[in-house]
Specification:
Length: 260
């Protein structure tokens, strides 16, 4: 078989980097081989950690949960595009329009910003990371893509989150002053709405959004691939850890079984 399979997922574990909010994932060993003859761990934590997929319910009340995404929307052909960004970079409609390979209607889109190389417990990845804005998310909705994965900290720019004066924030008020010093204006001028990237993509567009894509992302950048990302079959879930795969067939001779 000529298939090549790439893992676009960060390694999951107790001490992985985590978005600065709730307490981290806690993993305890309940049983181990030397004492019990089996190995068993207990996992406790929220789903919005590591490489994970959000549901509309995460950001807007009375909207679909993670199980409401139809299976056809979680796998299919698409592109991995390079849109490199630096500190506080914004993924714009112009970036998406110019991306190669060209983003087409019905595509799954993986966006390589370069920030997956900074994946660590640090401000460089989270507080000073990049992200899409509401207009960029609207572009994806208008072009009718079916799933988006971001190689950065979230489905939104950090200045559109509670890190600054949005929602439950500011949890990192120093970022407000740093933005003012850098750009000469309040961040709410540039990011007036709370997580409109999330809301435009998932609530308005019904498009799944995956945060913290990484792993072998560089190896498929610039390619058209077959992607798969499956969350749990979990009624009421506001999000879910996922393993994201990209598959290519260099020889072009693979075929799915007919089912007969």
């Amino acid at each position: 078989m000529s298939l090549q399979i790439y893992d676009l997922t960060h390694t999951y574990g107790q001490f992985m980097p985590e978005w600065p909010s709730h307490p981290g994932v806690d993993i305890d060993v309940l049983k181990f081989h030397a004492r019990d003859g089996v190995y068993e761990v207990n996992w406790e934590g929220i789903m919005h950690r590591g490489t994970h997929m959000d549901a509309p319910l995460h950001v807007t009340e009375n909207t679909p949960d993670i199980m409401d995404y139809p299976l056809w929307q979680l796998c299919g052909t698409g592109v991995c595009v390079s849109i490199p960004k630096e500190k506080w970079g914004i993924i714009t409609p112009e970036d998406l329009e110019a991306a190669t390979p060209k983003i087409q209607e019905g595509d799954i889109v993986m966006i390589n910003t370069g920030f997956h190389h900074k994946w660590a417990d640090c401000d460089d990845y989270f507080a000073y990371g990049c992200g899409i804005n509401g207009a960029g998310a609207n572009w994806l909705v208008e072009h009718k893509v079916k799933l988006v994965g971001y190689g950065c900290q979230a489905n939104d720019h950090p200045l559109a989150t509670k890190l600054v004066d949005h929602g439950l924030g500011p949890t990192q008020p120093h970022l407000i002053e740093e933005w003012k010093q850098t750009y000469g204006r309040d961040p709410k001028v540039d990011f007036p709405l709370w997580e409109d990237g999330h809301k435009n993509l998932m609530v308005k567009g019904h498009i799944p959004g995956i945060e913290n894509v990484g792993g072998q992302l560089d190896e498929v950048t610039g390619k058209r691939c077959f992607f798969m990302a499956f969350p749990w079959r979990w009624r009421g879930g506001d999000g879910c850890i996922v393993r994201v795969l990209a598959i290519t067939d260099p020889d072009g001779d693979f075929r799915f079984e007919s089912g007969k």
